[in-house]
Hints:
By secondary structure, this protein is α/β, with parallel strands linked by helices. The chain has helices at residues 2-53, 58-76, 82-94, 108-117, 146-151, 154-161, 166-179, 183-191, 194-199, 204-213, 243-252, 254-261, 307-324, 343-349, 368-384; strands at residues 95-96, 142-143, 228-229, 265-276, 279-289, 294-304, 333-340, 356-362. The radius of gyration is 26 Å and the shape is globular.
Amino acid sequence: MNKILTQSKDSQLLNRIGEILTIARQHTVQTVNTILVKTYWEVGREIVEFELGGKTRAEYGKGMLQNLSKELTIRYGKGFTHSNLRRMRQFYFTYQIHATLSHKLENPIMQSESAQSNGGEILSTLSRELENPTVQSLSEKAVLSEKMLTKLSWSHICLLLAVSDKDARSFYEIEIANNSWSVRESKRQIESMFFERLALSKDKKGLKQLAEKGQIIEMPEDALKDPYVLEFLGLDEKEKWLESDLEQALMNHLQKFLLELGKGFMFVARQYRISINNEHYHIDLVFYNKILRSYVLIDLKTGKFDHSDFGQMKFYLNYFKEEMNDKGDNEPIGIVLCYDKDDTFVEYVLKDEKQIFAKKYLISLPDKKLLLAEIEKTRIEFESEPKIK
Length: 389
């Protein structure tokens, strides 16, 4: 008995020490990452100020970076390729961070540590313009908050620098920080044009809010995209596949599908059975969104949205509302996820309906320009169509 008790106490001690070490290692990695990003920003500033001070021509500037890359690599090892130095330069032009610290210190890493130990704010917005008017105006630069800087690695920064649209870049900064997306997840969301798909149904005010605050979910439509991009399923558009094939593929890649669905979604069931008077009906997929506090029912279609899909989903929602909702749950939401849909037809079928949505999905990620053109086409069609009164 005493031996068992001792083992139990030993185990508790081991677990406590393990937690301390895990937290310490995570903090160390985070701190090193923050210092690295800050250092690269300082390197970018040095390059820019050297170029401006010497009124560097573009041709000379390119050769200068190449020579600098070789020398830095010899002295300090990897990480200073010509392309990476260009990114550091672009990083300084694009963002403002910890600019109250003197960049004249020989070691920017020690500079960062010194500022932190003095209790000063590491990240701050500059209150004045740079003296040299050639440098981009500070009002045009994005500000990386302390939270963002501790969440964004240099690889994240490189992805963001490739996003030319300021609103989209601001949105991804916020979402990466809030959701702790990995570099792979972030790349996938950017390439699948997450921002543009959410922004499709937004007016100018909504678009600005999306860029400044990220995705805020207050109503069902705030949590939904159109189209959904399911390129990770590996389905071939040239082959004929069944709804069961689509469902199985989604289950095989559930984690990626949850990422594509967005914030707050939790998987509940597949082929959820409803029985009424010995008749059985099955809902393809059931989720719960903890932000909306609603069940989300998904009906999968390999064809075009039809009015019969609306009637079936209405039946499912009524059942869940009466039989499954607990106290505090909001009305369930229905998504008919279809391969194709006619927006005008959908508008007539779903007139005044606030809980059912017809959304399109893509099973391959098209060229970015083509996807953007498709989104813009949908926007124009939506705005030009006479609204149902």
